[in-house]
């Protein structure tokens, strides 16, 4: 017997309809690219998204077309996502921090037909457009007054373009498994891989993400996503926030400490999300200029491992709870978040911090296990680490055009490429990327764990650990550090600081200081580049 419930396809248009119907006047506040703050609400966002959909359809775009965006987090970018999805076309977020050659490759692979671009990135699109044969039109996210001269033949100012529609349009209906969005992962080897989200996966992911043990967002929240929409599906926040009716505050192009502080306080933000680098900048700003964060309740931190000193500063000094989260582009992107279960409720001090340094446990909708190289499931003992595998309704089952098929097995488990352990209460801790683990004497050393301890040193700004070849042990760790401004730590200082905090045999064989550690376009440490840089370096122990 089949259930007798209605067919109500999980389409993303339903999310903005819900926000506009049930929370119509809830504000969407943005720092505009032109400069001033801009205020609108869900009813207006929906109204303008309908105009976008109407115009796109009139101009011949439709189901399955890839429509790119290269834009900061603003109300206009949000409208574009819903307008594009509303006709069954696919928003394709472009990361402007990638190299132009990579962007051209990605746009050609996706066959983008149109791009919505912020003023900031117009020069980049001007350079790319001649290299992307599929690209027919460029819409610049600004008004006539701010529209610059451009040599692009088919470019219009967004606000002018919108005047051509009245918004009398109904969202298109289609199967919920239809593609809604697309985001390429910045793979460190080979070509980038396209991840394709569906309407169903986006809607389910948003329902999963808002739960109390996940992002914990409600209509009373005031959410500031600093993570850009072009990183890993914007952590799903462009859907989760309207779904809950929370106020949405967006940073536009400014993510420095002073600008973030201004938004947090003036807009009374209760919940915010970004990578650790953003929080280090904010904390440095607060250290230098003073200030309090009276409204901030929760800081969601992910993308790379969150150093203990960041957790400590937010919780002990500013009274905001840190939620350490892990995920990936392929997971829409949430995988685990670190809420405190009753099993750990009594912990305080360093014991609590040790739990909060883990990436937490998965919400309903993410299954997770750790296996050895022969795919045997490893015990949940908090120390045995292996390959982290996941599955769920918002986890990729293939890449666009099927590159990297080997990452998905017959039982639909996706090999994340991360190495982790899980403890008895289900808390997962990432110890490395599979390709970054250091193999010393047949045992694995976690580079991330050493890095996390090293950045706790008051004179160290950033740390990265790589494995260098060693005649006896196969590989041994080299610690690469950036000094804090005005400080002069020595190798002995740093090693002394690590002593007793990590296993003896994990102690780096050497410490070197550099001016800068290379980063990927998503702000993660680029270990491949670092390994290249130190390829000929000989460890003193070798
Ligand atoms: P991306 O798809 O670009 O978001 O990258 C996903 C990868 O970032 C994951 O596979 C992890 O290696 C890393 N990552 C994300 N969040 C964390 C975290 N909280 N701690 C450590 N690594 C993380």
TrEMBL record:
InterPro entries per record: AMP-bd_C, AMP-bd_C_sf, AMP-binding_CS, AMP-dep_synth/lig_dom, ANL_N_sf
Pfam family of the protein (one): AMP-binding
The UniProt record lists the keyword Kinase: no
Signal peptide: none
Swiss-Prot/TrEMBL GO biological process terms: fatty acid metabolic process
Domain AMP-dependent synthetase/ligase: residue ranges: 17-400
Enzymatic reactions: 3-(methylsulfanyl)propanoate + ATP + CoA = 3-(methylsulfanyl)propanoyl-CoA + AMP + diphosphate
EC number: 6.2.1.44
Alphabetized UniProt keyword annotations: Fatty acid metabolism, Ligase, Lipid metabolism
Residue intervals of the AMP-binding enzyme C-terminal domain: 449-524
Enzyme class label: ligase
A molecular function GO annotation: ligase activity
Record-linked NCBIfam families: PRK06018.1 (NF004674), PRK06187.1 (NF004837)
Family listed: Belongs to the ATP-dependent AMP-binding enzyme family.
Protein name: 3-methylmercaptopropionyl-CoA ligase
Species of origin: Jiella pacifica
């Amino acid at each position: 017997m089949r259930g007798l419930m209605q067919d109500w396809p999980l389409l993303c248009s339903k999310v903005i309809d819900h926000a506009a119907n049930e929370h119509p006047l809830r504000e969407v506040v943005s720092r505009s690219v032109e400069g001033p703050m801009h205020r609108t609400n869900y009813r207006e966002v929906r109204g303008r998204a309908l105009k976008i959909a109407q115009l796109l359809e009139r101009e011949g775009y439709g189901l399955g077309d890839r429509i790119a965006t290269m834009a900061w987090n603003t109300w206009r970018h949000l409208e574009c996502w819903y307008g594009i999805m509303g006709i069954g076309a696919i928003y394709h977020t472009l990361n402007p921090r990638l190299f132009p050659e990579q962007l051209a490759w990605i746009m050609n692979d996706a066959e983008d037909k149109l791009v919505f671009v912020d003023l900031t990135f117009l020069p980049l699109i001007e350079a790319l457009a001649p290299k992307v044969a599929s690209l027919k039109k460029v819409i610049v996210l600004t008004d006539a007054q701010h529209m610059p001269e451009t040599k692009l033949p088919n470019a219009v100012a967004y606000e002018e373009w919108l005047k051509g529609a009245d918004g009398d349009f109904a969202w298109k209906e289609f199967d919920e498994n239809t593609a809604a969005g697309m985001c390429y992962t910045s793979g460190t080897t080979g070509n980038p891989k396209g991840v394709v989200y569906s309407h169903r996966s986006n809607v389910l992911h948003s329902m999963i993400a808002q739960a109390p043990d996940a992002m914990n967002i409600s209509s009373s929240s005031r959410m500031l996503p600093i993570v850009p929409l072009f990183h890993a599906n914007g952590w799903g926040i462009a859907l989760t926030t309207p779904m809950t009716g929370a106020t949405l505050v967006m940073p536009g192009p400014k993510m420095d400490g002073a600008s973030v502080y201004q938004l947090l306080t003036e807009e009374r933000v209760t919940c915010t999300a970004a990578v650790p680098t953003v929080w280090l900048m904010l904390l440095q700003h607060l250290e230098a200029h003073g200030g309090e964060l009276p409204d901030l309740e929760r800081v969601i931190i992910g993308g790379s491992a969150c150093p203990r000193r960041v957790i400590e500063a937010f919780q002990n000094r500013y009274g905001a709870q840190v939620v350490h989260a892990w995920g990936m582009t392929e997971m829409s992107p949430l995988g685990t978040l670190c809420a405190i279960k009753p099993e750990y409720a009594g912990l305080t001090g360093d014991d609590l911090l040790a739990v909060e340094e883990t990436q937490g446990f998965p919400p309903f909708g993410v299954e997770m296990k750790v296996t050895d190289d022969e795919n045997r499931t490893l015990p949940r003992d908090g120390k045995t680490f292996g390959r982290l595998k996941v599955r769920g309704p918002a986890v990729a089952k293939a890449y666009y055009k099927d590159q990297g098929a080997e990452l998905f097995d017959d039982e639909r488990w996706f090999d994340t490429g991360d190495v982790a352990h899980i403890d008895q209460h289900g808390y997962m801790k990432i110890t490395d990327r599979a390709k970054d683990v250091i193999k010393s004497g047949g045992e694995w050393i976690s580079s991330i764990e050493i890095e996390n301890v090293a950045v706790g040193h008051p004179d160290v700004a950033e740390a990265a650990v790589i494995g260098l070849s060693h005649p006896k042990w196969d590989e041994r760790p080299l610690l690469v550090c950036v000094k804090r401004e005005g400080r002069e730590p020595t190798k002995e200082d740093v090693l002394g600081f690590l002593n007793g905090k990590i296993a003896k045999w994990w102690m780096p064989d050497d410490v070197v200081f550099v001016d800068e550690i290379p980063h990927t376009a998503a702000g993660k440490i680029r270990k491949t580049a670092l390994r290249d840089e130190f390829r000929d370096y000989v460890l003193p122990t070798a």
